[in-house]
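Reopening this one. Same input as before:
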Amino acid sequence: MYRTNRKLAGARGFTLIEILVVVVIIAILAAVVVPNVISRIKDAKNSAAISDIKSFETAIDQYKLDTGNDPSSLDELINPPNPKGKWNGPYLKNLSKIPMDPWGHPYVYTVPGQNGRDYDIYSDGPDGQPNTSDDIQSWNLTGQ
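Same output, byte for byte:
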């Protein structure tokens, strides 16, 4: 009987207090890390939208140099208009269609743009609603 008690003493498990301490530590770490990760995802999506808009602007500039005017839609950067004329594209490489913004909404392209701009390109942002503070606009990219 003495031998059996000795073996049990060496095979001790975790107590409830030890498990609770580990759970609390994990919860504290999650409370600190999760908001930082979510913030990074938001920043990454904003950066992706800005990069897309700048790519569109470069492609539109090349299109305009070749044809003499702005495309009537972003689709003309990939598929030639009818008649083809001096179109020398595709101006956006390796794409079969214009991508959606990082939130799954279409980019908005208008010709002519407002306030004397040749064109406007913008994303409605995460909320998908136009003219809100989270919109990412081609005319407002300075400093971003």
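So the earlier flakiness isn't reproducible anymore. For the record, The longest helix spans residues 16-67.
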